[in-house]
Amino acid sequence: MKIKFKLTLAITSILIILGIILNISIKNVLTTNMEITINNSLKEIMNSTREAVKYRLTLNDSLTKEDLLSRESDYLIKYISLNYECMAQLNAINGNMISTNITGFSEEIAKGITSSKTGQATSTIKYTKSGITSIVSYPIYINGRYLAILNIAKDYNETYLDYTSTINFITGIELIIFFIMFLLSYFMTNNITKPISALTEAVKEISNGNYNIPISSKGKDEVSILSNEFIKMKDKISEQINTIEAEKDKVYTLEKSRKLFFDNVTHEIKTPLTTITGYAEMIKDNISDDEDFKQRAIERIHSESERLNLLILDLMEVSKGLSTIKENKVEINIESLIKQVCDDMKIKANKYSLTINISTKPGLLFGQVNKLRELLINIIDNAIKYTTGNTIKVNSICELNYYYIYIENESNPIPANIYNSIFEPFVKINDSKENQSLGLGLYLCNEIIKEHNGEINITNGELITVEIKIPYSRNNLEITL
């Protein structure tokens, strides 16, 4: 059974029990008050009728009181009935009836006569279908002499009607009040349990992997606080799962890239070794006596050896990680370093009929000279390999405590799948002027920038712009001034 129905059933049961107890209590109070009122009325009638009987029996002294009572009994019964709107019966002290106009109630009158013989007055309230009749029996004394027993039966139907009307009215009011309380309790229970039901449904959705389900958390009560905490927990779980999924994708991509890398490495290592072995065997076996051929073979062996050496150095760089490479940081004149690297790279640029234009600003950086040199060489080397134009621009500016270096070249736009993972290891573009790259250059550049607390960004398009951002040295102000 749902908690909503449990609460509603419990509240309804409590209301019903309270209603019954309240109704019974009110009914008992009203009944007691009604009976007290009737008894008080009977006492007044009893006192008045006793005096009327005494007065009537003292008018004639020629007869005995018993004879006079017997003669005046009918008159007394009529007098009492007319004046007090009741029925009466006069009995002798031995219980014999002298006169009466009472019909019924013989049992109650007999009990009253028995009590009156002992000198006690008794009253009985008898409830009937049509109302209430009260019977009172009391002894008549004249001058201390026990003379007779008077029984009076009076209807209190109007009093009883008022009583029942009051009871019915109060019961109706109670029913209305308790019905309103039931409705209020139902709506309150519904408002309390509705957020709990929503949380239950949300838990089910989350268990099924749906973390986008909306949850309302209005108010400041305990349920609202629980909803807020649940929302935080849901968002945290969703964030953690997204992080795990992202890391899982990264691991998958990395493993895939590593596999591709080692496949490429195998091929890259095999190619120069095959060339070196081939030329070495030809020289060893004196296949040709042509000195020019031997010279070309030696140069080829040397160039392939250099290529193989560079390949192995790159592999060692990646396997060790930049953090293991020890180089002290010093204050660097970055403008001078940029110009040195550009002068060195102009030799390679001239090979492809390219021009490197330089426009730099002075500045001091605190860093590793060789690493920053490697950074600049890799970026400019990429510009040379991938440019479709004739000019490579290298500019720098100082702004807001940072030194900015911009390297621009015209190029075909970088494919989206490559651009989105451009700084991952083993990612490379195949339309370069050279095919010896393993896709490690930009990865190493990004690691170098991280070591210097800087940033590197690439703007894609027909004009490729690499932005390098590195913090100033403390003494940079002296240089700029």
Task: Describe what this molecule looks like in 3D.
- The structure is a single chain.
- It is built from 11 helices and 12 strands.
- α5 (222-284) runs antiparallel to α6 (291-320).
- It has helices at 3-57, 65-84, 106-117, 157-207, 222-284, 291-320, 334-351, 369-386, 416-419, 441-451, 476-480, and strands at residues 87-92, 97-100, 122-127, 132-142, 145-155, 330-333, 355-359, 364-367, 391-399, 402-410, 455-459, 463-471.
- The strands form 3 sheets. A 5-stranded antiparallel sheet has the order 2-1-5-4-3, with helices on both faces. It has a 5-stranded mixed sheet with strand order 7-9-10-12-11. Strands 6-8 form a two-stranded antiparallel sheet.
- It has 3 domains: 3-165, Beta-Lactamase (2-Layer Sandwich); 217-320, Signal transduction histidine kinase, dimerisation/phosphotransfer (DHp) domain (Helix Hairpins), CATH 1.10.287.130; 328-480, Heat Shock Protein 90, CATH 3.30.565.
- With 481 residues, the protein is of the alpha+beta class.
- The longest helix is centred in the middle third of the chain and has 63 residues, at 222-284.
- The protein is 60% helix and 17% strand.
